[in-house]
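stuck on this one:
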Amino acid sequence: MLFDSHAHVDGPEFDADRAEVLDRARAAGVKRMVVIGAVGDPSSAERSVALAEKDRDIWATIATHPHDVGKMTDDWWAVHERLAPHPRVVAIGETGLDYYYDHSPRETQKVAFARFLELAHRVKKPVVCHIRDAHDDARAILKEGRAGEIGCVIHCFTGTPDDAKAYAELGYYVSFSGIVTYKTAQPLRDAVPLVPRDRLLIETDCPYLAPIPKRGQRNEPGFIVHTAEVVATCAGMSFEELASQTMENTCRVFRITAP
C-alpha cells in the first residue's frame, strides 16, 4: 500500500473525472492521500476539507501557497483559522518560500510563513513546506518557529544533497516527487540515501510533475508507483520496504492511525 503525501486532486484539473482518478489510484495500490488545500484563494482549502469529509482515506491540509500570499486578506486568514482545527485537517500547508518565481514579495512570504507556523503550533499540527531556491532563509524561519516540535515536511524536495542532510539533521521529513525520476535529477537521487529511512516520504504533487514514463501527462495519484520505484532503488530498499516505510512515516508525521 502506498500513501501519496501531497496531491492537489481538489483542483479543476480533476473536475471531469475525479472519481475515476481516485479509483485508478486505489487500483494501483495507493490506499491513502493527503489533499493540499493551498492553491490560489481559500476555496482550495474548503474543497480539500470537503473531499476529506467524504472519503475516509483522504485527509486535508490548509494554507496559502507562497505564490499567492501577496494577495491574502483578513478574510483569507479567517478561513484558515476556522478550518485549522478541523479533525480531517492533518497539517498546515503548503506554506514556505519560493525565490525562483517570486510571485509574492519575499518579505511578504517570510511574514506569512512565520504566521502559518504560529497557527500550526496553536492547533498542534505539523507544517508542510514549499521551499524553492530559499533553503537558508527557510531553515532560519523553521528553526525560529520551532517547527521540529510540531513536525515538518519539506515537500517536493528540490535542493542539494547537503540541503537534504541539513533538513534531516533537524528532524524534518523530506518528500520526493516525480522529479526524482527525471534524467537531469541526479542530485535528488543522490539526496535520497542522506535522508534517514524513517524520514522519507513520497508524493505526486499532482496534477504537476508526472514521473517518467508519464511525463508530459496530467499527473495523478496512481502514478506515484513510478516515483516509489526510483526512490526505493536510491534508498537501497525493495519496493515493498519503501511502500511500508513511507506509509508508516506519513502516518506518523500527520498523526494518522496506521492501517
Q: What stands out?
A: The chain has a mean pLDDT of 98. Residues 41 and 64 are 7 Å apart (CA to CA). The two ends are 9 Å apart (CA to CA).
